[in-house]
Amino acid sequence: MTETTDTQTLSRSDFTSPFIEIGRDEWARLAGETPMPLTEEEVAAYRGLNEPLDLAEVSEVYRPLSRLLGQYAIAKRDMHRRTRGFLGRETDEPSPFVLGIAGSVAVGKSTVARILRDLLARWPETPLVQLVTTDGFLYPNAELERRGIAHRKGFPESYDRRALLRFVSQVKAGVPEVRAPHYSHLVYDIVPDEYTVVTRPDILIVEGLNVLQPASMERPLAVADLFDFSIYVDARTSDIETWFTDRFLRLKDEAFRDPESHFRRFAGLNDDQARALAHEFWKGINEPNLIENIRPTRARASLVLRKEADHRVQKVLLRKL
């Protein structure tokens, strides 16, 4: 099935689709009277490499989304209160609202996660919002080498899925302090004895490539089963490859020049050589992972943000209730 047909099937508004398709203008109006708490300077700090983002994008796309997520979080808390009363357990604390964000490399999901973290933290009902990326649950490079899967870093099997599931389960269970390993993109590896500490947040955002992977006979519980809401950041494959290449070129001229960078050896490439290498990485690693593992989970999301070539969200697909 071609990508065009697949996208049309996903977004079709008849009974075959589990989603309601909402155009950008209609979606922007759903923000209602929700205030816009971020400034232009704050928005500028969110911009990823070669990823345009302005105050209008945040206001028209992420402001209504934060309003919707806030309502889901409030409804979950209310349901917990009702269930607690039914069970006669008045002292039980509500579990954190867990939001999963998935999508390809270079599609902009990290930017989406950071924006939503700060928007949701501005609302009085959810003042403590924490963000964890699944990069921290990649096996260390030495373990990937031992398993013979270093070339498949980012594929589902390269993650310690049991540790990730245990982490999210503990957060949901209300454990006062839960630690996630720290991953450095500079050294391209897990950093020993460094952690992100999660302390009973109102909302936990879990962002990563494969967070919407389903359970299986071998793994009867998946981390996605613990999400209260999930977002898939979507775009055409050709556009994502362009963004990946542009980002690689920018990194070549900036981060790769750091003496500590794992990719220091690429800093001296000219632009043509860098484009060729980025194409090789895309075709050999990132595109196969997208096609085989990431995109098939798109239909499992609660909401899909569909980006166009300019990186701007032009439509939203919301799962029908």
Structure described in brief:
This protein is α/β, with parallel strands linked by helices and 321 residues long. It has helices spanning 3-11, 24-29, 40-44, 55-87, 109-120, 141-147, 161-172, 237-253, 271-294, and strands at 19-23, 97-103, 129-133, 178-184, 189-198, 203-207, 229-234, 303-307, 313-319.
Describe it.
This protein has 321 residues and is of the alpha/beta class. Helices cover 39% and strands 18% of the residues. The chain has nine helices and nine strands. The protein has helices spanning 3-11, 24-29, 40-44, 55-87, 109-120, 141-147, 161-172, 237-253, 271-294, and strands spanning 19-23, 97-103, 129-133, 178-184, 189-198, 203-207, 229-234, 303-307, 313-319. Strands 1-9-8-7-2-6-3 form a seven-stranded mixed β-sheet. The protein has a two-stranded antiparallel ribbon with strand order 4-5. α4 packs across α5.
